[in-house]
Design a protein that fits this description.
- By secondary structure, the chain is an alpha+beta fold.
- Helices cover 18% and strands 29% of the residues.
- The strands form 2 sheets. The protein has a 5-stranded antiparallel sheet with strand order 1-2-3-6-7, sandwiched between helices.
- The site of nickel (II) ion has 6 residues, from α2.
C-alpha cells in the first residue's frame, strides 16, 4: 500500500515522535508499506511522521537494499560533509546541508532486534535527515544561508537528493 506523504508545514512534521515500545505485526505492516511508498516516490529515505505516524522509525534505501531503523540513536558522529538535500515533504525545494560525514547509529531492526549501523557519505546524510524528522526537524532548518534554498522542478531532482 502506498501512503500519502504529508506536506510541510503539516503540524505532525513538527512533533517529536514517540519511541516504539513493541514491534507488533501492525508496525511491521507499516514498515513494509513505508518501503513501498519510499520506492514509489521515489526517494532514498522515509520517516514514519512523513506518512502520519508520530513514532520513531524510518526506512532508507540508497540503492543497496532497504534499511529499517526503529528508535534510532546516534552513538558516534564525526567529520563534516555538505550534500544537496531535498525532502518528500517539501517537493521542489533543495539546499546544501552540512552534516556529520561518519556516523554510528544504534536501534532495532524490522524484527525488533538491537543492531548497530556505521555509515559514511550519502547514507550518513540520509540517517541524519530521517532522524531529524523524528525530532520535528526538516532539512531547511539546517541550512546555514537561506539564500542557498533553491526552487527546482521535482522531475529534475535526482532521486538520491530526495530523502
Ligand atoms: Ni525528508
Amino acid at each position: 500500500m502506498i501512503f500519502k506523504i504529508l506536506r510541510f508545514p503539516h503540524p505532525l512534521l513538527r512533533k517529536k515522535a514517540k519511541a516504539v515500545k513493541k514491534v507488533t505485526p501492525e508496525i511491521i505492516r507499516l514498515i513494509d508499506n513505508m518501503i513501498e511508498t519510499m520506492h514509489a516516490a521515489p526517494g532514498v529515505g522515509l520517516a514514519a511522521p512523513q506518512v502520519g505516524e508520530s513514532i520513531r522509525l524510518f526506512v532508507a534505501d540508497i540503492g543497496e537494499g532497504p534499511i529499517v531503523v526503529i528508535n534510532p540513536k546516534f552513538i558516534k558522529k564525526s567529520g563534516k560533509q555538505t550534500l544537496l538535500e531535498g525532502c518528500l515533504c517539501l517537493p521542489g525545494i533543495e539546499a546544501p546541508v552540512e552534516r556529520a560525514a561518519h556516523v554510528k547509529l544504534k536501534g532495532l531492526n524490522r524484527q525488533g532486534k538491537p543492531f548497530e549501523l556505521t555509515a559514511a557519505g550519502l547514507l550518513a546524510t540520509v540517517l541524519q535527515h530521517e532522524t531529524d524528522h523524528l525530532d520535528g526537524l526538516v532539512f531547511i532548518d539546517r541550512v546555514a544561508d537561506p539564500s542557498l534554498i533553491k526552487y527546482v522542478d521535482r522531475k529534475k531532482e535526482k532521486r538520491e537528493e530526495i530523502i
